[in-house]
Design a protein that fits this description.
about 50% helix; alpha/beta; Rossmann fold; 6 strands; six-stranded parallel beta sheet; about 300 residues; 2 domains
């Protein structure tokens, strides 16, 4: 068994950043972001990216990896994570992986990539089908290749369906065949000991934190940030905050800012609901703690004790 990989995760706005810095100092660890939006340069405010002054004494990885109009996918993330793990191991340090991006997080516990090479022209064809004829056209084209086994969320996710159809056009396989072949591959991180700490809060407390965060994003200039980003790739353009503000900017009939803020709060709550389901069903949790039940010091001490008892 290889060295430990430590994970600190939880729903958006739960309070991961402050705890992660304290925990990284205790573990003598560097931090790898597990966030699918913070990889984009210029996407600072809407992704709640840690500020340079906050991470001055703790090396961070996984931030600002590509341009906002360049799609960063799970395959690139896995390759990047493997590279960072190697670099940190050479320093004889630990790695603390911090974030709540479910698919990125799961890539440390199950295979997340395949060896199917999809030409960009094929992907663009699938994307054009959705743009010109809509979601139903995508679904019908996928079904044309054979049986489908997707949960309702994925079956109504255009980005997911475009990727599936592109792979079908390359391989000629049904979605079920693609899934079966995919599951045969091993996870590249199986030789590591992995310990997952899940942070939780009560719903009312989390709602307050979400609303406070949205207000802070607007005070910090979220609308202007979206304007400066210009053309955004689909994952960034569809991200909460960026999606709503872009629609607001492009609309000829401006809604009140309060309405715009509330739409972001509502979308964030929907994300939190999905994240909770994901953590419950997809990720092996080793330790969980409700931050509303303890002071920061008490929470940190409990987590430290868990880490001490689980060093391998």
């Amino acid at each position: 068994m290889g060295p430990n990989l430590w994970f600190l995760t939880g729903c958006t706005a739960i309070g991961k950043t402050t705890l992660s810095l304290a925990l990284a100092r205790f573990l003598d660890a560097e931090i790898l972001s597990c966030d699918s939006i913070q990889v984009y340069r210029g996407a600072h405010i809407g992704s709640a990216k840690i500020k340079p002054e906050e991470m001055a004494d703790v090396p961070h990885h996984g931030l600002d990896l590509c341009a906002p109009n360049e799609t960063f996918n799970i395959g690139r993330y896995v390759e990047y994570a493997q590279s960072i793990i190697g670099q940190v191991q050479e320093k004889n340090k630990a790695l603390l992986i911090v974030g709540g991006a479910g698919f990125y997080l799961k890539s440390f516990f199950a295979n997340a990539i395949d060896d199917i090479v999809v030409p960009e022209s094929v992907r663009q064809e699938a994307q054009s089908l959705h743009e010109n004829f809509g979601l139903i056209a995508l679904q019908r084209e996928i079904e044309r290749y054979g049986p489908v086994d997707l949960n309702p969320s994925d079956w109504h996710n255009p980005y997911r369906l475009v990727n599936i159809l592109a792979k079908q056009r390359v391989t000629g396989q049904s979605q079920i065949e693609l899934k079966q072949n995919f599951l045969k591959n091993n996870c590249p991180f199986d030789n590591f000991s992995r310990k997952v700490i899940l942070l939780e809060r009560y719903p009312k407390s989390l709602d307050t934190r979400i609303r406070t965060r949205v207000e802070e994003m607007f005070r910090s200039g979220l609308v202007e940030e979206v304007r400066q980003l210009g053309e955004m790739c689909p994952p960034l353009a569809h991200a909460i905050g960026y999606r709503e503000v872009k629609k607001y900017i492009d609309s000829t009939e401006k809604t009140a800012e309060a309405v715009l803020k509330e739409s972001i709060v509502r979308a964030t709550h929907q994300l939190v609901k999905k994240q909770r389901t994901w953590f419950r069903r997809q990720i092996p949790i080793d330790y969980r703690i409700n931050l509303d039940e303890y002071t920061f010091k008490e929470s940190f001490d409990f987590i430290v004790n868990f880490c001490r008892n689980n060093r391998i």
